[in-house]
Amino acid sequence: MSNKIPSTPVNRLLKSRGVAFTEHPYAYVDHGGTRVSAEALGVPEHQVIKTLIMQDEHAHPLVILMHGDREVSVKNLARAIGVKHVEPCKPEVAERHTAYRVGGTSPFGTRKKMPVYVERSILELEKIYINGGSRGYLVGISPADLVALLEPVPVDAATD
Description:
26% of the residues lie in helices and 26% in strands. By secondary structure, it is α/β, with parallel strands linked by helices. The chain has one domain: YbaK protein, CATH 3.90.960. The longest helix has 9 residues, at 33-41. The termini are far apart.
């Protein structure tokens, strides 16, 4: 992707709701993850937030937002949300639920309404960078705006 800013469901939603945000296109690298985007933006990887689509034992999908430099403990997440088992969705299933390609998944404007969980410590950051709905494109927003738009449930799901 060039440094052209795409029009996505995410930036259209944020604009329509009057949310202040910054736009950050970067050169997407397959399997580069948040390390690549953090380096491209010159921000700590801890502030780059992963949007992960998972499912419980009944195949009900959910969104978990995690720091780029941390991993989700599926045991901790399952315990925190009161289910027996949580696992990542297969890429094609995640894409069906969200309408976003893996690597460009955003918690905003998903095809299917899903419960959203957020690692509690993300809410303590001043600004976060989260996928803007396209590979190679992040938006910077305040955690307060994330909460206002998504009403996520705070959890302690990071690996110990």
